[in-house]
Amino acid sequence: MSKGWSIYVILIVAANILGAAWLLWWTSRPPKDGKHTETTGHVWDGDIREYNKPLPRWWINLFYITIVFAIGYLIWFPGLGGFAGTAGWTSAGEHDRAKSEADARLAEAFSRFDGMGIDEIARDEQAVGFGARIFANTCAQCHGADGRGARGFPNLTDADWQWGGSPEQILTTVLHGRQAAMPALGAAMGGEVGISEVAAYVQSLSGLRADPALAGAGRARFAGVCAACHGADGRGNEALGAPNLTDGVWLYGGDFETIREGVIAGRNGMMPAHLPILGETRSRLVAAYVWSISDAARREAGGSAAAGGESVR
């Protein structure tokens, strides 16, 4: 706050305090002739009169005490413009102290999970509960309260994983984030016809209905450009984060126009790193929760409890 604004605020506060004190004194002083008028002279409905009686002395004195208290409060705490107050209190300092105390309590509650394996944490009911609450506060904004995701945000409750679904792979994702890198390939496909051909071929890989002539022509284009990341069979590459194109899971949608859009403009979804946000142990807890909600689907799909499933798109 500038010096000018500080002086302005101080003058406003002082005027309010002095005005309240003066108004209290002026309205409670005795009349000059020593006699109080019985009524104000206001009459309603013929016989309802407004009386003019002085306030009790105890009430007036209590009001004066509140004015003195207000002055003392403004000296002790900040409230007069840029004056910091003699106590040195600030809202930021209060927040930092409260946060420090809360962090200490959380650290004590979470300390027994330090360095513990994700699958081991997932067997602890209390730990999974901790992870669920952290997920709700931090991850649900993108992945949904139930973890089922949305367009552009992966479903975390199935057995399909773009970067791998093992406990350590999930932990790595939570700690360090993921950055998708599907480049724009419209020019590499030779224009509109080539884009349509490869889009139709990608549809055919997952069993979707596609134009057979376009799909047949797109096979060679896919092998020459897309197979470098997605593999010759289109099953993807977890090390690169290249999705499996042969299953029925689509992150952005599997219709013809959406696939064309991905080929033309690329995809650059980002999962932010949560180590700076949550720290190591809380990241482990939320990773264990995520692994736990997808474990049933993983086992149902035939994968082992420690191995990742297929890829998410």
From TrEMBL:
According to its UniProt record, which cofactors does this protein need? Answer: heme c
Q: Where does heme c 1 bind?
A: 139, 142-143, 271
Name the Pfam families for this protein.
Cytochrome_CBB3 (PF13442), FixP_N (PF14715)
What's this protein's name?
Cbb3-type cytochrome c oxidase subunit
Please state which protein family the record places this protein in.
Belongs to the CcoP / FixP family.
The pathway to which it is assigned is: Energy metabolism; oxidative phosphorylation
Q: Which Gene3D superfamilies match?
A: 6.10.280.130, Cytochrome c-like domain
Tagged with keyword Cell membrane: yes
Quick check: keyword Cell inner membrane in the entry?
yes
Q: Give any GO molecular function from the UniProt entry.
A: electron transfer activity
Summarizing the function annotation, the protein's role is:
C-type cytochrome. Part of the cbb3-type cytochrome c oxidase complex.
The domain of life is: Bacteria
Entry binding sites for heme c 2: 182, 226, 229-230
Primary site of residence? membrane
Give the record's GO biological process terms.
oxidative phosphorylation; proton transmembrane transport
Per the record, what is one GO cellular component? Answer: plasma membrane
Q: Which residues form the Cytochrome c domain?
A: 126-206, 213-294
The cellular location(s) given in this protein's UniProt record come to: Cell inner membrane
Cofactor binding, note field: Binds 2 heme C groups per subunit.
The record's subunit annotation is:
Component of the cbb3-type cytochrome c oxidase.
Which keywords, in A-to-Z order, does the entry hold? Cell inner membrane, Cell membrane, Electron transport, Heme, Hydrogen ion transport, Ion transport, Iron, Membrane, Metal-binding, Oxidoreductase, Repeat, Respiratory chain, Transmembrane, Transmembrane helix, Transport
Enumerate the transmembrane spans: 6-26, 58-76
Xref: InterPro entries: CcoP_N, CcoP_N_sf, Cyt_c-like_dom, Cyt_c-like_dom_sf, Cyt_c_oxidase_cbb3_su3, Cytochrome_c_Oxidase_Subunit
